[in-house]
């Protein structure tokens, strides 16, 4: 039972961590090298990893998607999709895909004369499933060693864990004041009933024993 409990809560917290890791904004320091547009097939399983900025996009089997190619200071390739989120989840309310595409084209630089940018995005990258993080903002930084403090993530996670702590404290208090006394009363009633049954069986056994002795 203890292992089941730990497995259950471990699974719950793993899902919560994956949700926040996918949804919260992340920041990469990169050099923009190229932008392009490509038609993407939207399968039933991977559709959830693509934006649905309008109702029509939910029924399309494929559509043209803008991409931004970049390179990190360590030389690792990064590819981001550039899609509006509209009023859908996650709530970035991004409607400026064309503007961001223009900014990315203007931010291109070479390895000989690099220009470094902080690109804000959400989502995951998976080469096997053709999943790309969605870029939501782009701004220049002083250099490849620039530090971006994720203030929004800090605030959201702080509020979330404060809420979890408050709910946990209230649950403990409710359980101590309401549920535990009920369980204790149930256990006492069960013990009393068990003692009564045992006493009745004892009396019946003694009565049967007295009849046997008379024979």
Explain this structure to me?
This protein has a five-stranded antiparallel β-sheet. With 215 residues, it is of the alpha+beta class. The protein has three helices and five strands, in the order H-E-E-E-H-E-E-H. The chain starts with a helix and ends with a helix. The longest helix is centred in the C-terminal third of the chain and has 64 residues, at 151-214. It has two domains: 2-148, no CATH class; 162-215. It holds the Pfam family DUF1523. Keywords: Membrane, Transmembrane, Transmembrane helix. This is DUF1523 domain-containing protein. The chain crosses the membrane at residues 7-24, 148-169.
Largest sheet features:
5 strands, antiparallel
The number of E-state strands comes to 5
| Overall body shape | elongated
Order of helices and strands: HEEEHEEH
Strand-residue proportion: 15-25%
Class per helix and strand makeup: alpha+beta
**Count of individual helical segments:** 3
* Overall average residue pLDDT: 83
Kindly report the spatial arrangement of strands forming the biggest sheet. 3-2-1-4-5
Helix content: 40-55%
Rg over CA atoms, rounded to whole Å, is 31 Å
Distance between the termini: 53 Å
Low-pLDDT regions: none
What's the domain count?
A: 2
